[in-house]
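Hi team,

As requested, here is the filled-out complex form for the alpha-D-glucopyranose run. I kept the field names the same as last time so the parser does not choke. Let me know if anything looks off before we queue the next batch.

— J.
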Amino acid sequence: MTLQDTQNSAGLSPDANWWRQAAVYQIYPRSFADANGDGLGDLPGITSKVPYLKELGIDAVWLSPFYPSALADGGYDVDNYRDVDPRLGTLEDFDRMAAALHAAGIRVIVDIVPNHSSDRHEWFKAALAAPKGSAERERYIFRDGLGQDGELPPADWESLFGGPGWTAVGDGQCYLHLFAKEQPDFNWSNEEVRADFRKTLRFWSDRGVDGFRVDVAHALTKDIPLTELPDKAQLDAHPWDGTHPIWDRDEVHEVYAEWREVFNEYEPPRIAVAEAWTNADRRPAYARATGLGQAFNFDLLQADFDAEAFKKIISFNLAQASAAGSSTTWVYSNHDVVRHATRYGLEATGDPDAAKTWLLQGADPARVDVELGLRRARAATLLELALPGSAYLYQGEELGLPEVTGIPDEQRQDPAFFRNKAVEVGRDGCRVPLPWETSGSSFGFGSGEAHLPQPKDFGRYAVAAQSGVEGSTLELYREALKLRRELQSDESLSWLATESGTLGFSRPNGWVSFTNFTAQAQQLPAGEVLLASGPLDAAGQLPAATTVWLRQR
Ligand code: GLC
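And here is what came back:
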């Protein structure tokens, strides 16, 4: 039986629209569960946790990269797109994992990293070995360097992780890397590159993968002159209107139109979601049905816990996605940002970078109100899970995990830290391996020491500490996801007239979600209480920073 067959026979609905209101759980494989005790999470580890994922009640998992990689950027530096990192398993392990997930009714989304490969990819090695002007170099973005021997970058561009964006190869040429120097950018004008990615999409689709999360989807196509490149100031000043030399160029959608044809070769068609940190008004082009089909909106992730801000963002994104024929995506946390239980415990600033700045300033724990952060995080989650559209949850948020601070410099892994120390502390704090048990080696993550250090008190967040415990964050997620499945129908939402600082909306079937964003208790609306993100007070009031789901007739 092929995986395609297991997909069809596993009790996954054949509904081509399964993704529109799915709850998708992001797994960062190296930090989820370690089956072989080498300190790195792996695919058999994920397979061993399928019962946990099933009980959680999610519709799909999205796996961050598990491909062979030197981990210069946590696996987003891919050596080979059609294989599994031997430290994480084998292709057979992948098949077993996908079959187990499918049998549990859970779809599988994988990460595809098309903007750049790693510098260990066979094509990049061939490019280095080949001369200037060769077909091998044409697959990447090589330009002549400046200076006597071309040893200087052709322009003063910076990598997104800090430091130069061009690296010299020693023969007068330099190559472009928007990220770490181990991540050379592909040349998407090259048909070989395009054909190879279509091959990769088919490779995983043939193995039964249900969809793709597309990394840095807005950077693939570029327009970089052969000589006299624009300088950094010119790049920074250039509007993102489809003509920027690097970002969000209009012709990137030609690539996705080709991908769509590949996705539609399958039944049901494979889905895709764009990671495109671009201007909001340019998202629909990624989300339309002739393109990737869905695009992340990171608007709630960047907002303070504030009723007005939430309402504006929700209204805008529902209208925008629906005009594009898509459904929107709600995200509070992922492997790139400070966990929201911690963000919400910091003073509101309206500045999305405030949490990063705080981490940089030595992360004084006295500045986080841990209790308030978690309380708001739980309220925000219940609100999110009542919204139309898909909800992308990041591993560990169901445990209320805070950002891990104080990781010693020598144990850090994120290139953003090493390349840009003065500006950011990096993303390791949200990538610390999960605590499954209250004690023992790496809190049940594996039998060895975890690859990133876990804090001493991590056990109190463990799955074992929360499972079956009434009122725990884990049980809140389980109940909410279960109810969401029962209550969800079409994608309509009506706002209720509410007092300032509160937000209420109704969905079909009398399902109402009501959130108190303020610091005082508020009047609880009428209706049968289905679930609340925290205890309700005896006087029938809705406490501060709490969401309640009600059934109203
Ligand atoms: C995306 C990923 C991030 C990675 C970067 C480069 O933003 O989410 O983790 O570092 O792309 O691939």
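Two things worth flagging: The chain is about 30% helix and 15% strand. The radius of gyration is 23 Å.

Thanks,
J.
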